[in-house]
Design brief:
The complex is a heterodimer of chains A (409) and B (374).
Chain A: H1 7-23, H2 39-56, H3 74-84, H4 95-108, H5 111-122, E1 128-131, E2 147-151, E3 154-165, E4 172-178, E5 189-195, E6 201-206, E7 215-226, E8 230-231, H6 237-246, H7 248-252, H8 261-270, E9 272-273, E10 276-277, H9 282-310, H10 322-340, H11 358-369, H12 376-387
Parallel strand pairs in A: 1-4
Antiparallel strand pairs in A: 2-3, 3-7, 4-5, 5-8, 6-7, 9-10
Helix pairs in contact in A: 1-3, 4-5, 4-6, 8-9, 9-10, 10-11
Chain B: H1 7-23, H2 26-31, H3 41-49, H4 68-81, H5 87-101, H6 104-116, E1 121-124, E2 140-142, E3 145-154, E4 161-167, E5 176-182, E6 188-192, E7 202-214, H7 221-257, E8 259-260, E9 263-264, H8 269-298, H9 303-329, H10 340-353, H11 357-373
Parallel strand pairs in B: 1-4
Antiparallel strand pairs in B: 2-3, 3-7, 4-5, 5-7, 6-7, 8-9
Helix pairs in contact in B: 1-3, 1-4, 4-7, 5-6, 5-7, 7-8, 7-9, 7-10, 8-9, 9-10, 9-11
The chains are: A alpha+beta (409), B alpha+beta (374).
């Protein structure tokens, strides 16, 4: 039992380290690591870095060589990620495209599609977004209402998507639509790729409760797409979407916010409860212990998954617990960090609040993170049904035509 | 990255699992709920015959000379079966303590007997309702004799030898020593205690001028004890993971076979989410225990933190799993006939046996604080 690389992994890691040291700046040495940038600057910086990575062969490590990937194993991708995370490089705006959209195109698109789209996506020349969620279909994605109606060799699309990350600067998107409302909901869906720059596509930013805008609403008004833009058969959209969603947990996972247990211990030493430092308070100590144990549990669960990947095995179901635990911990730890500041926790000012306001921002952010990419509740259903083998809930909408289902507001 | 047990260790685990599955079912545990036996002789003999008691004892002392990782996989299976045997007392506590801190003579005297199952050992730490800290250890060692009262002592009646935590004079931690006492010798009386889990009997040990030998120099006992408890915490965490898995399995099977309001209760989200939470806690405990195993096996610098995290997560996973297993079963789970009680009892016993979560959280945070300040 150890954390060591195999000789082959060690060799790859050394290569990656060498390349990164020549092409990027360590976070610890970076000036301006946290400067605010305009969207154009962010996109430009991302594209430059992605092109560099692609030239060096690190941009699509696990994809087949035939389509421009490196044909390597998932552990290589993990090792690259570990090494890159030490460097001040842009947080990827390609994550959804490369993590979810292009894998779907590769699984369901024609050879022509693959030739046309895969390489430019790897190089970061074209950015992709995923258009599934709707105001009426979040956890129940298959309840979506955006209509695509056939008109000769084309389809005419009308409707609305929501929570689309990056739509404002994306070039293409994969769009799940309803093509037949007269059959049960899962059977009447069809997937297309679309040109996000089409004038019939309108992107409006969503203002989150935190005040920031990381997502968009996307409206389609008589958007015309060719039948050749279809991914999979007409009516097979749900099957196609599952390919995308299987990749979602990998694309969304990860983040636990910026403040963690070490930060909390420092904060608890700096602030007082009654007459003494908060760190001496039993309630504070208990919570620090609990979050440390959770953080370690998450870390070593990840290590178990990595071990399977390293051995070329399929990881066990243990990774399905990660977001359930991480999102709630992020929220609770943020909230508790604010509590420790007592009334000072009311203030939201990067220049005043500890850790540049990280507790407050992760408290805001976690409320969304507990929903994004599968809510806490949906993820528990997934654990119960797919890991433990419990039966699906009774589906009252299963055998009914979509247009006969009761609709709320 | 090789954060997993080896194929040989997994094979050992399967062997133990199969043996306990065949020979140590709930029907066996049930015999000991109201029985007078100190442990199940058949199961114990089987474990001894498989050589498991000697797993981590060096070959020079009659063991197999394997390591902590092998003990961990055995522990997980003992926990899964809630086996009614003194393995933890004799091996995780007594044998490990003697191996780590005993004199050469003490090792030669006791380790071969513990390895062969000829003798059973235990640790005598607590003195009733007071927390086990240096201030509260009143059992005294002087002139080669021990006097005092220890309770609850796991397997106190069955055990032949005990590592006794004693006050050897002085103050604070420096007053504490570990002493080895032959429990079948003079000056020792053992009296059975009524406890929450009769499948793992406990006793009160009264020492009256009982002959004893110190393990190593006087005054080292508290830090020696901490090392023994760290190791035991990891091994108990594996028992807890096994137990939590068994409780989840029982709950899952019942949720699949029980119908209410016209459908399987496992199709209701209230039950699904409960079982998902059991699974989440169990996996967090397992991942922490793996790191504990690695630190224990390597005698790593983070053993204390890893042991504390293993214990805190293990306590949480098994206690939660055992109680929610009963809840999933509803009324039938609360009856004497149901097997749910074995995990409910065992989970709470294990959560207390080498110190409750509050003690370990304090130990952990003190450690983290010191590191954080450094």
């Amino acid at each position: 039992m150890d954390f060591n690389d195999t000789p082959e992994e060690a060799k790859f890691r050394a290569e990656v380290r060498d390349w990164l040291s020549k092409n990027a700046t360590l976070k610890s040495e970076a000036k301006n690591a946290n400067v605010d940038r305009t969207q154009d600057q962010v996109v430009k910086r991302n594209k430059e870095w992605q092109a560099k990575k692609a030239d060096a062969g690190y941009a699509a490590l696990t994809w087949p060589k035939e389509w421009g990937g490196a044909g390597a194993s998932p552990i290589h991708s993990v090792i690259y990620g570990q090494e890159e995370s030490r460097y001040d490089v842009p947080g990827s705006i390609f994550a959804i495209g490369l993590g979810m959209c292009i894998p779907t195109v590769m699984a369901w698109g024609s050879d022509e599609h693959k030739k046309r789209f895969v390489k430019p996506a790897i190089r970061g020349e074209e950015i992709w977004c995923q258009l599934f969620s709707e105001p009426a279909g979040g956890s129940d994605v298959a309840g979506l209402r955006t209509r695509a109606e056939k008109d000769g060799d084309e389809w005419v699309i009308n409707g609305q998507k929501v929570w689309t990350s990056g739509a404002q600067f994306c070039d293409y998107g994969i769009l799940l639509t309803r093509t037949d409302p007269n059959v049960p909901k899962h059977k009447g869906l069809t997937m297309f790729w679309i040109d996000m720059k089409d004038p019939a596509v309108e992107v409006r930013p969503i203002r989150q409760m935190s005040g920031e805008s990381g997502f968009n609403e996307v409206f389609f008004t008589d958007l015309r797409v060719k039948d050749s833009q279809r991914l999979g058969k007409e009516g097979d959209g749900w099957k196609v979407a599952l390919t995308t969603l299987m990749n979602e947990r990998l694309a969304v996972g990860g983040s636990q916010g910026n403040a963690d247990v070490d930060d909390l211990i420092r904060l608890a030493r700096d602030v007082d409860i009654a007459d003494g430092p908060a760190i001496n308070n039993g309630a504070v100590r208990e919570r620090i212990a609990d979050w440390y144990v959770q953080a370690q549990g998450l870390k070593f669960t990840r290590f178990r998954t990595l071990t399977a990947l390293s051995k070329g095995e399929t990881p066990g179901p243990e990774s399905s617990i990660s977001k359930i635990v991480a999102a709630k911990k992020m929220q609770d730890l943020g909230s508790f960090g604010m509590d420790l500041q007592d009334q000072g926790g009311i203030i939201r000012d990067r220049n005043v609040s500890p850790l540049e306001g990280a507790y407050t921002e992760q408290w805001f952010g976690a409320a969304g993170y507990r929903i994004a990419g599968g809510t806490d509740e949906i993820l528990r259903n997934i654990v119960a049904e797919r890991v433990l083998g419990l039966p699906q809930d009774v589906r009252v909408d299963k055998d009914k035509a979509f247009n006969e289902l009761p609709k709320g507001k | 990255m090789n954060f997993d047990f080896s194929d040989d260790q997994k094979m050992l685990k399967e062997q133990v699992r199969k043996f306990l599955g065949d020979k140590s079912g709930y029907d066996v545990a049930r015999k000991h709920l109201e029985g007078k036996d100190a442990y199940d002789a058949g199961v114990w003999k089987g474990l001894v015959d498989m050589g498991l008691t000697g797993t981590a004892i060096p070959e020079a002392y009659g063991g197999l000379g394997l390591g902590a990782l092998e003990l961990c996989v055995i522990a997980e299976e003992l926990g899964r079966a809630a086996a009614p045997v003194p393995f933890s007392s004799s091996i995780y506590l007594a044998a490990e303590a003697i191996k780590l801190f005993g004199t050469e003579e003490q090792k030669q005297k006791w380790l071969p007997k513990l390895a062969s199952g000829e003798a059973v050992g235990t640790l005598a730490l607590g003195e009733g309702l007071k927390a086990a800290n240096p201030r509260n250890i009143e059992t005294a060692f002087a002139n080669g004799k021990v006097n005092g009262l220890k309770q609850p002592v796991a397997d106190g009646e069955a055990a032949d030898v005990a590592v006794v935590v004693v006050n050897s004079g002085g103050s604070g931690e420096g007053a504490i020593s570990l002493a080895l006492v032959d429990l079948k010798g003079d000056g020792v009386t053992a009296e059975s205690l009524r406890t929450i889990d009769p499948t793992r009997p406990h006793a009160q040990l009264a020492f009256k001028d009982a002959p004893a030998e110190l393990m190593g120099p006087a005054g080292q006992g508290w830090s020696q004890l901490q090392r023994v408890l760290d190791g035991a915490a990891v091994l108990f965490a594996f028992e807890q993971v096994g137990g939590a898995e068994a409780a989840l399995e029982m709950a899952k099977e019942y949720a699949l076979e029980r119908y209410a309001f016209g459908r399987q209760i496992g199709s209701y989200q209230a039950i699904k989410h409960k079982l998902a939470d059991m699974y989440v806690k169990k996996e967090l405990a397992k991942s922490n225990a793996y790191y504990g195993a690695m630190m224990l096996n390597d005698e790593g610098s983070e053993l204390t933190e890893a042991a504390a995290a293993s214990r805190i997560a293990g306590n949480d996973a098994y206690v939660f799993g055992a109680q929610e297993n009963i809840q999933t079963h509803g009324g039938i789970g609360y009856t004497w006939e149901s097997n749910c009680q074995f995990h409910y009892r065992r989970a709470k016993l294990l959560a207390l046996t080498v110190g409750a979560s509050a003690q370990w959280k304090e130990k952990l945070v003190s450690r983290l604080e010191a590191k954080n300040a450094a």
